[in-house]
Amino acid sequence: MLKLGHISYSNCFPPHAGIVTKQVAFPFTLVEGIPTELNRLLYDGTVDVSPSSSIEYAMNPGRYLLLPDLSITSRKQVMSIILQSRVPLTDLDKKTVALTTASATSVILLRILLELLHKIHPSYIRYAQGAENPSGRADAFLTIGDLALTQAAMPGYSYRYDLGELWHEFTGLPFVFALWHVNYTKEIEKELCALYDILILSRSYGLSHLQELGHEYADRFKIPAQKLIQYWNSFSYAFGDDERKGLLQFYDYAAQLGAIKPITELKFWTKK
C-alpha cells in the first residue's frame, strides 16, 4: 500500500487537513515525521510520496518526480524560520552560528543570506533543537518549525530575524520550503493517481476551513488559534510561476555556495 509522508509541523497541516481530519477518504498509510526524517524515509523508499525539503530534490537530481501545483511556500515572512543573535546579522562574520539538524533547506537559506548577500563567513556548529540549548556556545542560532513559532526570545539574544522575510527583501520572490516528492515506480502509478486527487481535495478542504481548524487544533500545536491562522495565511500551498521562480533562484544561489550542482529543470509527475 502506498505510503504518504506527513510533516509533523503545523505548516503542513492545511494541505493534509482533509486527510488528517478524515473529511477526505484516505485508503493509504500516513507516516509522520520532521523534515529531515521524511527526507531519509523518502530516499530509502520507506515512504512513496512526501512533502519534503526543497533542497532534497536538488541534492538527489533525477531521483524524484514532483507532484504539480503543491508546495509549502512563504509569500513574505515565514514566522517559523528564525535566527536569534547576540549581535546584528551583519556583525556575525567569524562568530559562531548554531544550525538546527531538523532542516536542510533552512540551513542553506541562512548560508545564502549570510555568505552571498552579506559576505559573512561565520563558524558553524550543529545542534538538535528541542534537545539541546545552543545559547551557551553560539553567538546566533537557527530554529525552525513550531518551536521557532512559539519560542520566547532567548535572554541576551536581542536580534531576531525571519528568514522568509529576509529572502523576500533580497530577491522579491517567495521562498519554497517544501515540495511533494515522489519516489516513482510504475507499480505505484494507479495509486498515485488516486492519491493526487485526494491531496487536491484535502488541500481544498483545509484552505476553506482555516478558521475552524485553527481553533480546533490550537491546543494540539500549542499555538494560539489566531496566531496559527495568521501563520497558515502567510503560506502559498500552490506551485505557480512565482513559486517556480523563487525555487530556481534558491537553487542558483545554493549552487553558487557549492551545496548542490546547478539545477535548470524541474521534473513533474503528470497524471495519465
Structure description:
β1, α1 and β2 form a beta-alpha-beta unit. Helices cover 40% and strands 22% of the residues. The chain starts with a strand and ends in a 15-residue tail after the last helix. The strands form three sheets. The protein has a five-stranded mixed beta sheet with strand order 7-6-8-5-9. Strands 3-10-4-11 form a four-stranded antiparallel beta sheet. It is globular and about 55 Å long. With 272 residues, it is α/β, with parallel strands linked by helices. The chain folds into two domains: 155 residues, Periplasmic binding protein-like II (D-Maltodextrin-Binding Protein, domain 2), CATH 3.40.190.10; 91 residues, Periplasmic binding protein-like II (D-Maltodextrin-Binding Protein, domain 2). α1 crosses α7 and α8 packs across α9. The longest helix is centred in the C-terminal third of the chain and has 20 residues.
How much helix is in the residues? 40-55%
Strand content: 15-25%
Could you say which overall geometry the principal axes of the C-alpha atoms support? globular
User: Could you say what the CATH architecture of the largest domain is?
Assistant: 3-Layer(aba) Sandwich
- CATH fold-level label of the largest domain: D-Maltodextrin-Binding Protein, domain 2
List how many beta strands DSSP finds. 11
Strand order of the largest sheet: 7-6-8-5-9
CATH superfamily of the largest domain: Periplasmic binding protein-like II
Structural class: alpha/beta
- Look at the structure and give the mean pLDDT: 94
